[in-house]
């Protein structure tokens, strides 16, 4: 098996006193795409945010590219190649599309060998709907365009692994199809992906295996049918 970009043992996540994730272990190999499935409230976002260093968590192991990242703050994990596209997208509505993209360039770390290179021209080819919108304010974009911008900005930061949180949420079927095509092409370039989704068909079109979260714990895939999540596993 190829090397790990992310290796996690016994990860727990808290929001204030409330625990949202309980002892999750997972591994993401270089070039691999893994789906994180589960119902609303299962802990998908909490898990991704903890991996990116955005919320309080503890783990016995959290390695990024073989380095112990447990004490690293979010910006250091980002520079090490972990890029989170959060569920709420967090694009800057009072900056233009081009200025938003430049923020991704600022977050750039050294590009590890074997990591695909994404420059402005490439991400605009991938998400061509953004090209005529470069001078527009973030606030003027449709939901689909905002999602594309959030992913494009993350790609410009030189990620080794892209963590995406429900990118299809609220998008029309046609836009979801476009997104699927763009993400398939990213997979082709060898980018590692951890994709939280409730849209299972979309997730399994891109990912080679799935993890199922239920009430903050990873389920055995054989139990996933109890949740009606067995369709694509
Ligand atoms: N920002 C937050 N502040 C407080 N609690 C949160 C926050 N985000 C999520 N939670 C809580 O964590 C639990 C898991 O939610 P979440 O990780 O958002 O699940 P999912 O992404 O699978 O829908 C829920 O009980 C939710 O209320
Ligand atoms: Mg969520």
Strand content: 25-35%
Detail the poorly predicted runs: none
Question: What is the molecular shape?
Answer: globular
In the CATH scheme, the class would be Alpha Beta
Structural class category: alpha/beta
The main sheet comes to: 6 strands, mixed
Q: Tally the structural domains.
A: 1
CATH architecture: 3-Layer(aba) Sandwich
What's the number of extended β-strand segments?
11
- Predict the CATH topology: Rossmann fold
Question: Could you give me the name of the CATH homologous superfamily?
Answer: P-loop containing nucleotide triphosphate hydrolases
Explain this structure.
The chain is α/β, with parallel strands linked by helices and 233 residues long. It has a single domain (4-227), classed as Rossmann fold (3-Layer(aba) Sandwich). Helix content is 29%, strand content 26%. It contains 7 helices and 11 strands. It has helices at residues 44-51, 74-79, 97-106, 120-126, 143-155, 173-188, 200-206, and strands at residues 4-15, 18-29, 33-37, 57-58, 61-64, 67-68, 82-85, 161-165, 192-197, 209-214, 217-219. The strands form 2 sheets. Strands 7-8-9-3-10-11 form a 6-stranded mixed beta sheet, sandwiched between helices. Strands 1, 2, 4, 5 and 6 form a 5-stranded antiparallel beta sheet that branches. Helix 3 (97-106) runs parallel beside helix 5. The mean pLDDT is 91. Adenosine-5'-diphosphate binds next to helix 1. The site of magnesium ion has 5 residues, from helix 1.
